[in-house]
Known about the structure:
The protein folds into two domains: 7-208, Rossmann fold (3-Layer(aba) Sandwich); 219-291, Helicase, Ruva Protein, domain 3, CATH 1.10.8. Strands 4-3-2-5-6-9-7 form a seven-stranded mixed β-sheet, sandwiched between helices. A two-stranded antiparallel ribbon has the order 1-8. The longest helix has 13 residues, at 219-231. With 292 residues, it is an alpha/beta fold. Strand 10 and strand 11 (254-255) form a beta hairpin. Helix content is 39%, strand content 19%.
Amino acid sequence: MAYLATPTATTEVIKKYGFNFQKKFGQNFLIDANILEKIVDSAEVTKDDCVIEIGPGIGTMTQYLAEHAREVVAVEIDKNLIPILKETLSEYDNVTIINEDILKVDINKLAEEKNGGRPIKVVANLPYYITTPIIMGLFESHVPLSSITIMVQKEVADRMQVGPGTKDYGALSLAVQYYAKPEIVVNVPPACFMPRPNVGSAVIRLTRFEEPPVKAQDEKKLFAIIRAAFNQRRKTLANALTNGLSYVDKEGKSIHVSRQEVCDVLDQMGLSATIRGEALTLEQFAHLSNML
């Protein structure tokens, strides 16, 4: 079996098919076998697993996944890559290739069909421009997931695992930490890709919690509050929520809060009326959401 994780092998495939990299899909193919092995190892892929790979490209990582997993579903948006994948993965009978936008795929249905509804693992080298919608889409739709192991922009990986009071801390940090335990596995320099991106990358593993670490009576409301707090992060939390909170409850009623309400709740929580959202922990946000 010819592995694709070298500059020579990747160049050969690209030339053979006259493939052109599409900027709109943020395509950067991995050409470093050591990094690929680290990704598959840290995803702890075993013969019991059904893995969904997002953006397989020419199938470089798919080959490794197919050798470790029971079943791999590779979801690729670029139709020009489908004939390439059919050839590069022709030796594997445990790979299904789907030409679709991952944001439109019914992953619950896939997990049911391919894995009897048991939790799947997601592994991906994600295009930078769509990292957050993909991760949040996977978590918020409550698909059965045990972990997500992904290559993302280094800065985004850092943002997912930081705590309050740092400039990288924001809505993404809180959302990821509500659903999963984030761990950066390895930092990856631009030279490991073709074409070379302008920024460094990192592999991060998000291990899904069985139960969120905090109790929010209304998850949607919690995230509406978090988004409002960070949409205007230089404002005090009281001002940001008074002006920016748009939330419709389960009865379809639009919820707004007054500055006084927010200040009263902050006071009960022992927090200053001038505090900013970036100073609150996930637990404090959940408490605030439950009390408002």
